[in-house]
Amino acid sequence: xxxxxxxxxxxxxxxxxxxxxxxxxxxxxxxxxxxxxxxxxxxxxxxxxxxxxxxxxxxxxxxxxxxxxxxxxxxxxxxxxxxxxxxxxxxxxxxxxxxxxxxxxxxxxxxxxxxxxxxxxxxxxxxxxxxxxxxxxxxxxxxxxxxxxxxxxxxxx
Length: 157
Prior knowledge:
Distance between the termini: 9 Å
CATH topology: Four Helix Bundle (Hemerythrin (Met), subunit A)
Shape: elongated
Order of helices and strands: HHHH
Mean pLDDT: 94
Largest sheet: none
CATH class: Mainly Alpha
Low-confidence stretches: none
Number of domains: 1
Helix content: 55-70%
Radius of gyration: 20 Å
Number of strands: 0
Number of helices: 4
């Protein structure tokens, strides 16, 4: 299969959409750990490793309970793990999807469904919504990536 280099140009609206969406998702992936750090500093706990309760300039009064699980901090960690399970697959599937030249409308629907679903999942998780709501948001993002992969596969044959 020959790939037309024009597919990887900003003149290709599908590639442009992917670039924007991928950049948003990479920022989400890279900023989520900062949210965890901010939460750890806010509560002075939620640390994970024994060496984290040594006296340092950032932790002048260490306490053993700083290693206890803190739900406020751990919720952010779980969000980060969920991002690590989802976003890399989108980045790869989305890029391969661009390479097969899908129709613009299909690309818009699938790519923006993924981004919107991940945003909704983030809101649902940070506001401690029930599993059913979080799963609903996650499902749409997963289906969008699966659809991109299936479309790419069908174009490869």
